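Subject: M23 family metallopeptidase

B.,
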Amino acid sequence: MKRSLLLYILGIFFLGILTVLGTNSLHEYAALSLLNDAVNESEDFRNQWLSEEVSGELDVFCGEQGISRGDLLTILMLDHRFDLTGVDLKNYGKEQYSDSLHNQWGRKPEALQTLRESYEAIWDDLVYFPVPESTVNDEATVAFDNSWMFERTFGGKRGHEGTDVMAGMNQRGYYPVISMTDGVIENIGWLTQGGYRIGIRGPHGAYYYYAHLAEFAREFPKGTQVRAGELIGYMGDTGYSEIEGTTGNFDVHLHVGIYIRTKDSPEMSVNPYWILKYLESHKLSYAF
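Prediction pasted inline below.
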């Protein structure tokens, strides 16, 4: 009787262990399923959502740990399922980063590398906010909201694939626009929707699009190398017309778009809002 009871207890014990191991395996499998070769085309990735707390701590953490913004965000977003609500980088050390990198997400090296390259393309070339701060005019402010995929109707209904940096002073040609990154001018000139625009390809491959300019800073042939912080034009209200030079169809603002190449898309848009929020603390000062 005692022997049967002992065997029964041992059976329950080992069954519990197997259940725990099985549950942990299921959790690991579910987590790893998040990392696939199309994760950089998901809505979670495209939203580029970043909490204000993480945004404010990003540079300090990366500097202390000796990793790039793209590397950190790759692992951090995977660890927290693209939801950084309540995440405090002060409590997220290099050991946790390294453990996740090597022992979990590193089990899918190709998919991990694809995601890392996408985050690097977007984040690792960023240097400056695209509109400098005025040193002489307190009224020359700018503001922007998260209007990602809000409805637009010119040319047919579509989602807004960018962020509009609105001018506090509705005066075309007044606010300078600078390049957020180093890069090469890939496109320049008039577009029906974008008006006068410049498209710059960053070193890691992202395409930074600046639209509705009043004018360009100078004549930029395609292929011109630009530096982060270089003046490229002035904020305006051009566009929404097939007639080049059309103005006045909306208030003065800068439309910022960011695009990356993926497996299935040569030009996939991502939300610039949190990128611009991060860059608000990285402004140049101009006398305008």
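Helices lie at 2-33, 43-47, 52-65, 69-79, 94-104, 109-123, 273-279.

T.
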